[in-house]
Amino acid sequence: MSENTNQERGNRKQRVGIVTSDKMDKTIVVTVNRKARHAKFKKVINISKKYYAHDEKNEAKIGDQVVIAETRPTSKKKCWRLMSIQSTAE
């Protein structure tokens, strides 16, 4: 999808992550890693979160780096969709 499509739909959240599972039909699991400072100990820690995203054409594979965008809920756990694949796994 192009950048115009995202502007027409409003300002949606976007995340960049790695595909960790593609075993479901039209669904991928994307792990997004971020760094945050611990509130008490002030140490930088890695935080990872998994998102279920809609992949209409089943084009993303395990290990691909992808961009996902927030959308209306498609199922109980799925409220993100695949925007683009930035790089593919070797």
Automatic annotation (TrEMBL):
Family, similarity comment: Belongs to the universal ribosomal protein uS17 family.
Gene Ontology cellular component terms for the protein in this record: cytosolic small ribosomal subunit
Coiled-coil residue windows: none
Originating organism: Lentisphaera araneosa HTCC2155
Gene Ontology terms describing biological process: translation
Record-given protein name: Small ribosomal subunit protein uS17
An example Gene Ontology molecular-function term: structural constituent of ribosome
NCBIfam families according to UniProt: PRK05610.1 (NF004123), uS17_bact (TIGR03635)
